Recover the amino acids of this structure.
């Protein structure tokens, strides 16, 4: 099997200012499936085509933002190996017992120099996507509820020291650099898009002075028409839209950025391309991000909110 | 019936209809530079201080508005809904943008 090590972003825990408003947004407007609630009051959701029990956990708190992002790894041996590799690299790791998150096995957590908590885990209970494994139908009724993305796809995080973050993902966890934006002086990177798979990004970072910030969580749709339908559904439900529908130059993804009721940005997107680890990374100059269409290819401008509005 | 909102820093006035946030109504001024962010009380770019009048509020992130600030009327405009005519001062990022001369139409 070619896909080993870290498989995919598997879960993210978001802080929301009002739990039921958050649940309404992610379950009824975005159209995820609610799969459980725990003793802490956290609510668990998954996209309709995801097979594991949860991909999004909502926690009510007095500050918006992201608590952690978890990546599923191939198996427990891989989890042990990667924990050893992280420690050998010089990072402190912490084991969180199985069951602390519903239906989820033991997690290894570490903090990036950007201030974000990242987790690795090998086990999460498979609950299926509502389709039989043998001779399945292509979709279910849940695939038409709300915006109905097929999966949690990636996230974009803002914080300091992204050069060091890149080394941890690429040198320790087996990711590779797909695209980047140079700093204005061209000497470093102001933004990086990293993949552990055949996806154009599994996680991305922008250099930012405040640690631990969320720019957006992204959910995958399967067509441009579905992105336009998502825009209609957002407008019908008074969701505040940031940018789009449009196309990013970076990654070629067709996108809408919008905000949940607590101000956490989310993205509904489709497209991009399928990179391989041997590809030369695509480079954008800092001007290319704005006037070159990196952020918004048709409008060719750096929307002010992109670099300044985070939670 | 709406209420009138007075921006002390610039002398501008605008109307705000029931149920509408101070920020959403302010955007109708059509001015460049009004920091309109998440409209969810999370990102903190639209901070103002209410100096006169009454507002109700929705949930705002404590990362941007402390309990003390909230008690003395320092709020996020996206989560403040006026109950009467209101005067406000703009704070932080919003102050820099709303009050710079070039931003005046």
């Amino acid at each position: 099997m070619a896909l080993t090590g870290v498989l995919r972003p598997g879960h993210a825990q978001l802080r929301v200012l009002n739990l039921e408003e958050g649940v309404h947004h992610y379950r009824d407007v975005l159209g995820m499936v609610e799969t459980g609630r725990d003793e802490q009051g956290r609510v668990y959701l998954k996209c309709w085509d995801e097979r594991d029990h949860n991909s999004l956990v909502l926690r009510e708190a007095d500050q918006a933002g992201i608590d952690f992002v978890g990546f599923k790894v191939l198996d427990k041996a891989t989890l042990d190996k990667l924990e050893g590799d992280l420690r050998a690299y010089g990072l402190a790791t912490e084991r969180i017992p199985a069951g602390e998150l519903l239906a989820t096995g033991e997690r290894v957590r570490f903090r990036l120099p950007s201030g974000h908590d990242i987790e690795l885990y090998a086990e999460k209970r498979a609950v299926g996507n509502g389709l039989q494994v043998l001779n399945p139908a292509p979709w279910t009724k849940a695939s038409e509820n709300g915006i109905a993305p097929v999966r949690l796809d990636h996230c974009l995080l803002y914080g300091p020291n992204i050069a060091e973050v890149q080394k941890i993902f690429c040198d320790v966890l087996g990711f590779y650099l797909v695209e980047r934006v140079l700093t204005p002086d061209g000497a470093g990177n102001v933004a990086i898009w990293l993949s552990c798979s055949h996806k154009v990004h599994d996680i991305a970072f922008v250099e930012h002075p405040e640690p631990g910030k969320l720019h957006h969580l992204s959910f995958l749709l399967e067509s441009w028409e579905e992105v336009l339908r998502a825009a209609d559904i957002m407008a019908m439900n008074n969701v505040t839209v940031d940018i789009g529908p449009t196309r990013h130059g970076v990654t070629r993804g067709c996108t809408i950025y919008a905000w949940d009721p607590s101000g956490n940005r989310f993205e509904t997107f489709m497209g991009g391309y399928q990179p391989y680890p041997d590809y030369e990374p695509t480079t954008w100059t800092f001007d290319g991000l704005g006037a070159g269409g990196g952020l918004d290819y048709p409008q060719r401008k750096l929307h002010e909110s992109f670099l300044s509005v985070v939670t | 019936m709406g209420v009138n909102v007075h921006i002390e820093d610039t002398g501008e006035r605008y109307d705000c209809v029931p149920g509408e946030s101070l920020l959403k109504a302010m955007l109708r001024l059509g001015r460049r530079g009004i920091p309109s962010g998440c409209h969810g009380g999370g990102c903190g770019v639209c901070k103002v201080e209410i100096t006169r009048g009454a507002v109700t509020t929705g949930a705002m992130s404590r990362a941007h508005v402390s309990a003390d600030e909230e008690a003395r009327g320092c709020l996020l405009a996206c989560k403040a809904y006026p109950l009467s005519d209101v005067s406000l001062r703009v704070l932080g990022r919003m102050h820099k943008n709303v009050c710079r001369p070039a931003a005046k139409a």
